[in-house]
UniProtKB/TrEMBL annotation:
Domain description: The coiled-coil domain is required for assembly into the NuA4 complex.
Annotated compartments: Nucleus; Cytoplasm
UniProt key word Coiled coil: yes
Pfam family, one: YEATS
Organism: Thelephora terrestris
Keyword field: Activator, Chromatin regulator, Coiled coil, Cytoplasm, DNA damage, DNA repair, Nucleus, Transcription, Transcription regulation
Source superkingdom: Eukaryota
Self-association and partners: Component of the SWR1 chromatin-remodeling complex and of the NuA4 histone acetyltransferase complex.
PROSITE patterns, per the entry: YEATS (PS51037)
Domain YEATS: from-to ranges: 7-171
GO CC annotations on file: cytoplasm; Swr1 complex
Protein name stated in the entry: Protein AF-9 homolog
Length: 251
């Protein structure tokens, strides 16, 4: 067996990515199919952003470990399953409604890994805090600028093949900045005031990475506690069942 096809046991290596979308209203000069109100781009990118870039993430070319990304759009779109075989891994379209995008990431042959599936709810409207379930008026949405909806994640490779490990180590990811120096944009997950929301592009930072890790750990603990609660409840029900069986046997 070739040494480069031997797995490096006990080692894990990860690559930070973001996936999500940006969307903006179509202008009067932009043509689109009847009824379409927005133009949008859904993408899988590196988590770090380029210097002075107005694009969320994308500082690194992910083509060294990602072979293909398939974006499954709503069935009303022609060729709804879009296969993107080289960076940038993204799809741009126009539309009027929000829907869930199924994202499949396929890795290069050297990885020897199965594809992974992610899910993203396409966001078009800048929902304002305290405004209920109704999008803001057109003139307000225009002032808010593009809507951004992005999720940070880490693709973890456990016990990688030596050949694939060599590829990964030859392409270290761009470190995330400690803090963002860019203007604060509108964030659909944490709405700010109208004044604070104007302009700007989201940027993922080390602080946000730490926050996401803490959220994941808290979620794991919550799942464990719920499992323990259900286990104890099941044990109590089994005891009650045994008691009923004993009482029936005595009658």
């Amino acid at each position: 067996m070739a040494t480069d096809r031997v797995r490096v046991r006990g080692l894990s290596i990860h690559r930070p990515i973001i996936y999500g979308n940006t969307a903006s209203l179509l202008t009067e000069k932009e043509t689109s199919p009847s009824g379409h109100t927005h133009k949008w781009t859904v993408a899988v990118r590196s988590a770090a952003s380029g210097p002075d870039s107005d694009i969320v993430g994308g500082a690194d070319d992910l083509g060294y470990f990602i072979k293909r990304v398939t974006f499954k759009l709503h069935d009303t779109y022609p060729n709804a399953a879009r296969n993107i075989d080289k960076p940038p891994f993204e799809v741009s379209e126009t539309g009027w409604g929000e829907f869930e995008v199924n994202i499949k990431i396929y890795f290069v042959p050297e990885a020897g890994e199965k594809q992974i599936t992610l899910y993203h709810h396409l966001k078009l409207h800048p929902w304002l805090e305290g405004e209920g379930s109704v999008p803001p008026p057109l003139e307000v949405a225009t002032k808010l600028g593009p809507v951004h909806s992005w999720q940070y994640d880490e693709i973890v490779f456990n016990d990688p093949f030596q050949s694939f490990l060599n590829i990964l180590t030859a392409h270290p990811p761009t470190p995330l900045p400690r803090t963002s120096k860019k203007p604060v944009p509108y964030n659909t997950a944490n709405p700010a005031s109208l004044e604070a929301s104007r302009g700007g592009v989201p940027e993922f930072t080390q602080a946000m990475e730490k926050e996401e890790a803490e959220k994941l750990e808290a979620a794991k603990k919550a799942v464990f506690m719920e499992q323990e609660r259900l286990r104890l409840r099941l044990h109590e029900r089994e005891k009650e069942l045994d008691l009923l069986k004993q009482q029936l046997g005595e009658t």
